[in-house]
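Tokens for chain A. Residues wanted.
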């Protein structure tokens, strides 16, 4: 007699996920389901779908090897209802049970589906994170502003990572100041470890090609790790060869090197093949061994125990309306060049092209190129957010929405960011090699050939004067704008409007 169904979702592929820990191998059945609905509620990048499905299949094999009974639905099973709730109901009927144990999904959409499911569902907290919801709520309670930096210090104290007694190792909590070097001439890291598709992956690639081949993004070559052992190898490879320079070049961008010194571990962390603490301990060990400098280790660990935990806390703290916020009232449609259409802006074109091939762009490309442009141009944050959720292999709503709606688009009204992340072309030029060879001229501010980021930057500040002119961190920007003579200001705004009109009418910009 089967007692309960234990649902394991495609981003819950960890032996220590709560529902598995609470389950009984002898009496419960694990349910895993590849379903069309999860692959297409946004048009996920084919590489992302392949990663999730291949990793699910391998995890199911591992569970069976460990003695679990697994009811696994493949995408093209004829009886597959193609939805998570549908598959749960089908399995409940098949095994004659109504009790279901699940780990809370990382997306309100799916939480609601499961809460509404007419079965006896028990939902456990997902404790594969360093902070529980209760701890985050206790931290947030009574604070006027929920800034990451203070949260991060508590995480350092809690984990003991990079601590010297009760003081931060190296004498400072944050070495961000050392981590802003512009693009290097030469990159010595050959990039993330790549894996040849094995039989399981090859079968999944054929399936994804047939079912989701029309989605934006290149399925092949596919080289992601798809099980825990491979993900650990990829982590070790990064720590050994890439980490030492991660800090220095964290914010740099190169047109023809997508990865620089980045780790490419977020897809593995987010589907459960790696845990945040094991990743950080590996980085801390490299620093303790004297293999990497403190600015690299601290910079990396801050992203994982700081930003990653903090954005998750914000997502659940703010509630289900958070992903739909539009605090700056932006409604312009996402232009076709986000989906691979032509643009003469070399920075945007390169960032989108690598997104299309790799399902990856690093933080600064997401924030200061595609995100910056979207914010300056006043694109609808809902459309922007859907794009990010679809195109990146690491995108799951709990982490995507705070980064996009909050950090990048300021659509949460400043919950995450104390000021909007906007810049003119000068920042992109300083941090990258994109501007060389661009159709536009980064040093031209108005008229023929002016860099659109230069025009739109002032247009953004001008149209949101009421919202931002009193922000202490933006005073300088407004003073510079106000010092320009009136005619020049009018020209900038007219050229910016002309650019936006051209873009929105579908002309190539
Ligand atoms: P590295 O640069 O090597 O950083 C190490 C690790 O730190 C990452 O693997 C990641 O787990 C963590 N990390 C770094 N920054 C963040 C952050 N801001 N939030 C959460 N974790 C972070 N990250 C996602 O995991 N999923 C997303 O959907 C996502 N969407 C983003 C959208 C925008 C607009 C922006 C600005 C950032 C987004 N990020 C997202 C954060 C960050 O860009 C990615 O985590 C990072 O690029 C992943 O690549 P990496 O593993 O090479 O990271
Ligand atoms: C992303 C994804 C995809 C593409 N496919 C599946 C699937 O077929 N079955 C499944 O259980 N999970 C899938 N996922 C992951 C879910 O979308 C994810 O669990 C939710 O978005 C919550 O984070
Ligand atoms: Fe981007 Fe402007 Fe530089 Fe062109 S000139 S790459 S549009 S920042």
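Reply:
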């Amino acid at each position: 007699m089967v007692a309960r169904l234990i649902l394991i979702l495609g981003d819950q592929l960890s032996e220590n996920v709560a529902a598995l820990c609470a389950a009984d191998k002898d009496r419960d059945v694990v349910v895993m389901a590849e379903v069309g609905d999860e692959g297409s509620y946004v048009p996920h990048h084919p590489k992302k779908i392949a990663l999730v499905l291949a990793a699910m299949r391998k995890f199911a094999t591992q569970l069976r090897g460990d003695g679990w009974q697994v009811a696994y639905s493949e995408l093209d099973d004829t009886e597959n209802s193609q939805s998570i709730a549908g598959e749960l109901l089908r399995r409940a009927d098949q095994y004659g049970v109504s009790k279901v144990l699940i780990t809370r999904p990382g997306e309100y959409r799916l939480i609601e589906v499961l809460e509404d499911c007419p079965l006896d569902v028990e939902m456990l907290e997902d404790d594969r994170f360093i902070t529980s919801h209760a701890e985050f709520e206790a931290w947030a309670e009574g604070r006027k502003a929920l800034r990451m930096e203070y949260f991060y210090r508590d995480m350092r104290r809690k984990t003991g990572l990079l601590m010297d007694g009760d003081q931060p190792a190296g004498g400072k909590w944050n070495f961000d100041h050392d981590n802003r070097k512009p693009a290097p001439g030469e990159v010595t890291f050959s990039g993330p470890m790549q894996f040849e598709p094995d039989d399981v992956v090859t079968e999944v690639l054929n399936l994804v090609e047939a079912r989701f081949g029309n989605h934006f993004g290149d399925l092949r070559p596919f080289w992601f790790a798809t099980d825990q052992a491979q993900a650990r190898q990829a982590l070790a490879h990064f720590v050994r060869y890439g980490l030492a320079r991660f800090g220095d070049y964290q914010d740099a961008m190169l047109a023809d090197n997508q990865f620089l010194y980045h780790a490419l571990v977020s897809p593995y962390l987010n589907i459960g093949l790696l845990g945040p603490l094991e990743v950080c301990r590996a980085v801390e060990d490299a620093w303790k061994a004297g293999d990497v400098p403190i600015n690299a280790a601290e910079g990396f660990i801050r992203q994982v125990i700081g930003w990653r935990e903090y954005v998750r806390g914000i997502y659940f703290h703010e509630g289900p309306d958070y992903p739909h916020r539009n605090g700056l009232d932006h409604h312009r449609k996402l232009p076709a060049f986000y989906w691979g259409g032509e643009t003469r802006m070399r920075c945007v074109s390169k960032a989108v092209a690598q997104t299309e091939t790799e399902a990856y762009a690093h933080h600064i490309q997401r924030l200061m190129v595609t995100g910056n442009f979207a914010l300056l141009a006043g694109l609808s944050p809902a459309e922007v957010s859907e794009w990010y959720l679809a195109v990146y292999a690491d995108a799951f709503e709990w982490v995507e929405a705070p980064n996009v709606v909050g950090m990048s688009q300021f659509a949460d009204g400043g919950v995450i960011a104390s000021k909007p992340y906007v810049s003119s072309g000068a920042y992109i030029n300083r941090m990258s090699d994109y501007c060389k060879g661009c159709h536009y001229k980064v040093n031209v501010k108005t008229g023929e050939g002016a860099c659109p980021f230069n025009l739109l930057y002032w247009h953004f500040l001008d149209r949101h004067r009421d919202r931002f002119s009193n922000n202490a961190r933006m005073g300088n920007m407004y003073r510079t704008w106000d010092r320009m003579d009136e005619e020049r200001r009018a020209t900038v705004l007219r050229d910016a409007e002309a650019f936006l009109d051209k873009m929105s009418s579908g002309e190539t910009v």
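The first helix runs from residue 18 to 21. The first strand starts at residue 5 and ends at 7.
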